[in-house]
Amino acid sequence: MCANQFKMLGLSTPLLQACEALGYSQPTPVQTQAIPLVLAGEDVMAEAQTGSGKTAAFALPALDAFAHTKGSKSTVLIVTPTRELALQIAEVCQTVAKYTHHRVVVAVGGVSDKPQKAQIKRGVDVLIATPGRLLDLLSQKAVSLANVGLLVLDEADRMLDMGFWPDVRTIMAATPSTRQTLLFSATLEDATFDIDEVFARQPQKVSVSPQTRTTDQVEQFKLSLPQDVKPPFLQAFLKEHAGERIIVFARTKNRVDTIFRRLGRAQIAVDRLHADRSQNQRQRALEQFATGKVNVLVATDVLSRGIDVQDVDWVINYDLPRQAQDYVHRIGRAGRASATGSSLTLVTPDQEQEFRSFERYLGAPLQELALPFFDMDEATSKAQARAARAQDRRDPELQQAKKEFSAKAKRKQHAKEQAREEKRPHAKKKSSSRKPKQLIRGKQSRNAQGSRPNKTSASRGTKRGQSNRARHVQ
Ligand code: AMP
């Protein structure tokens, strides 16, 4: 069944075997449209949503069209914005390469370039790279792009957003102008590509349901709540949905770290992903999440397009994304391929207006999440009380007034106690004939021969000192 559907697109036997190995039973719409065009040698400009199967849409026909032959001249170059995406693409290509024998090399930053250079030196058929590392290798003359027969620009809109386009230009200039070019982008209408700059000839356009901006498989909710209620709400939500696989998106690295620590303290198994984490830490986090060792992953937008994990139940936008396109990418993490998922966006009162512009972009208002497991009123008043206490702690005038008040209260209490003591005649006598005075009198009487006594030890010391001095003089 698998073979038939993919075979009709023109893929050869080793690629059909690779499809089986990848577990693809039938092509996705973008694969159905793009594969025959790529096999026919056309340039392609494709608008494909995240999770649509676009990686295989370029990787399968690319490796089929540019077969590995000993000493082969033409290579395939795939440029993608993030390390995670590069590794995902590599996974598909390496599975295919088991049947086609391509030499697949990944060149990404964040790790030593030595092994990458060594691999390139040994020979490469398919090079998957991030722009920065590829430029680095180019400038060191560790790689030549003179034999690139097919160039894939993956997530081109993202590369544009992330400011990689000047690097992409340099990379394009290092490849032959006769190359075949494929450009894949989640959105085409908002991205401004200079078509003449990218393509030497008119590209064929591929577009998968351009009206639907988000995957239909994701049920989308929003929740209006004050900023201070987000932490207790998230904990309650994660406890309610324990065992489900959840990605939590936050705006900054610091916020990811804070959420991660808070959830850790609440005994929730969680890991985190952001640009300051090392490559190994990022890989480990993805693996732990993929294998179910942790069910909650907190991440920034840098990775909103780089996480390919199957069966994510919920994507939570703990913070609003910066732009509507990022929203689409974030929620695309849920409901990937054939699995369904849900998303929840937390919206604070001051963000309502901004969020409405997102809803206009998405084409429909989102439904408010029902909260049988969370008392919003109680959480709000608790958060308000907490905020008021924190505010008090920060106000120096209030702090000074508090100090003065407590000092006054102490003085008052002390005065009261003294007055009470004085009113008790028996207690007064007792206190006036206290032992210390008797003791002093006792000492005085014991040393009565001499002058008024010093401390016993001190007087002993003086005597000893005198006798020492006397010895010394002798
Ligand atoms: P992508 O859009 O390339 O990030 O792919 C999203 C997910 O869909 C990946 O996990 C792929 O393994 C999966 N996928 C791609 N093509 C197919 C297919 N034909 N059948 C089932 N799953 C697929």
The best one-word shape is elongated
Give the helix tally: 20
Q: Mind telling me the C-alpha Rg?
A: 36 Å
The poorly predicted ranges are 429-474
Strand order of the largest sheet: 3-4-2-5-6-1-7
Profile the largest sheet: 7 strands, parallel
Distance between the termini: 119 Å
Q: Quote the average pLDDT.
A: 83
Small-molecule binders here are: adenosine monophosphate
The helix-and-strand class reads alpha/beta
Q: What's the helical proportion of residues?
A: 40-55%
- Strand fraction equals 5-15%
- Tell me how many strands there are: 14
List the quaternary state of the chains: single chain
Structural features, described:
This protein is an alpha/beta fold and 474 residues long. The protein is 50% helix and 14% strand. The chain contains 20 helices and 14 strands. The strands form 2 sheets. It has a 7-stranded parallel β-sheet with strand order 3-4-2-5-6-1-7, sandwiched between helices. It has a 7-stranded parallel β-sheet with strand order 10-11-9-12-13-8-14, sandwiched between helices. Helix 6 links the parallel strand 3 and strand 4. Helix 4 crosses helix 5. The relative contact order is 0.09. It binds adenosine monophosphate. The site of adenosine monophosphate has 13 residues, from helix 4.
